[in-house]
Design goal:
- The chain is of the alpha+beta class.
- The chain contains 17 helices and 12 strands.
- Helix 8 crosses helix 9.
- The protein starts with 15 loop residues before the first helix and ends with a strand.
- The model has no long low-confidence stretch (mean pLDDT 89).
Length: 395
């Protein structure tokens, strides 16, 4: 019987026992460590269907914990009320309050800023090189600059924010990890008080004003802080991980970098293929709010449901040669941004961010290559996220 979580034996490939589920059927029952009935969804069709199903709940009090931090939060009743933890229709109302800041048009409007700032980051790496540790020198600074721009966080606070989010990423550190969350939440509380008293032309101010004017949903000051903290962390950790993996792709597959330099029009498709191939959010968890019939199985109300995003993105029924990074394949239907009501709010912004940042690396460091054996690269092995802790390159 399959289990979860399972650590990857090959860094950029889902666990074999999860890939085997694609041969046996898209949905499989398993028993969690606490004896609770649960289900693994692996196929592209099953994962897509469940994520779009309104009978699937994100209620944090009922979904399983996959980190020491989450376990501690449950034990202490510290449940956040933010976009990811809300169900419809409440979720839909709250999401609309911030949606205008994450449109394709808005993402293109910040492209010139990204080109300037990310170019400066890469130029500094080149100036200090050859040789760099790209998670510290590139991935985290780019992710930090992005979210600070989106949320209009003061420049002088960016380094503080980056250090705290780095601590939050390490999900297996329990108490230390939770302390970083609490400290960062205190910072966001102060930030939100300032925006409430002196609203400006920024996402957080608009969120506050729309919440105050809404007759459809009641969001307390604490709820607004939870949502701001969610946007801040969710916009940073995944980006940092994917930026590191994007550099890995360019360094490990120099023919890909060469093709992209020769034909920049390939970049949008290449970004989607990298997102599919690496799938940084390995899985997401839900709980059935009603009985659900799927692929001849009955998921009972109250059962935990784990949807394997990484495995679904390697489904051979959808992708030919799924374990090959092929920037020419039409990979836009990948599930790396999830699907349904909780599909990643910032997907358009992320695509532009990755394209601009990785293009700067490919074009300004044409001889990029790994300065460490791939098997020696330290990866984050957490249940729900994936990326390099360090990535040494040279040129």
């Amino acid at each position: 019987m399959p289990s979860f979580p399972v650590r990857r034996t090959v860094p950029d490939t889902p666990p074999v026992e999860h890939l085997d589920l694609l041969k046996e059927g898209g949905v499989c029952p398993f028993t969690m460590e606490d004896g609770r009935a649960a289900w693994l969804a692996a196929s592209h069709e099953a994962v897509r269907g469940l994520l779009a199903d309104r009978r699937i709940s994100n209620n944090p009090a009922k979904t399983p914990s996959f980190s020491q931090r989450e376990t501690l939060q449950k034990q202490r009743g510290q449940f956040s009320r933010h976009l990811f933890n809300m169900d419809s229709p409440e979720h839909d109302i709250a999401r609309r309050m911030v949606a205008e800041d994450f449109t394709p048009r808005h993402a293109e409007e910040v492209r010139p800023f990204f080109e300037e700032i990310f170019g400066e980051i890469v130029d500094e790496i080149v100036r200090k090189g050859p040789g760099a540790e790209m998670v510290e020198a590139f991935a985290f600074p780019v992710a930090t600059k992005t979210i600070c721009k989106v949320l209009d966080i003061p420049e002088e606070d960016c380094q503080y924010f980056q250090k705290r989010t780095e601590q939050i990423i390490e999900m297996d550190r329990g108490e230390e990890n939770l302390e970083a969350v609490i400290e960062l939440r205190g910072y966001v509380e102060r930030l939100m008080r300032e925006r409430t008293e002196n609203p400006g032309d920024d996402l957080l101010s608009r969120l506050i004003l729309k919440a105050q004017a809404s007759g459809d949903i009641e969001l307390s000051a604490s709820d607004l802080v939870d949502n701001a903290l969610f946007l801040l962390v969710a916009g940073h950790e995944p980006s940092a991980n994917m930026l590191g993996l994007g550099v890995l792709a360019l360094a490990e597959f120099p023919h890909v970098a060469e093709e992209l330099r020769a034909d920049p029009s390939l970049w949008p498709g290449a970004i989607d293929e990298m997102l599919r191939y690496y799938t940084i959010a390995r899985a997401t968890k839900r709980v059935a709010a009603a009985d659900i019939e799927i692929e001849g199985q009955t998921i009972k109300e109250g059962d935990a449901v784990i949807v394997l995003l990484d495995t679904s993105n390697r489904d051979p029924k959808v992708y030919s040669d799924p374990h090959v990074l092929d920037i020419h394949r039409p990979a836009g239907n990948h599930l790396s941004f999830s699907h349904g009501p909780h599909q990643c709010l910032g997907k358009h912004l992320v695509r532009v961010q990755l394209e601009v940042a990785l293009r700067a690396v490919a074009e300004r460091i044409p001889g990029l290559r790994l300065d460490i054996a791939k098997e020696d690269i330290p990866f984050r092995g957490d249940a729900l996220s994936y990326g390099p802790r360090q990535l040494r390159v040279t040129w």
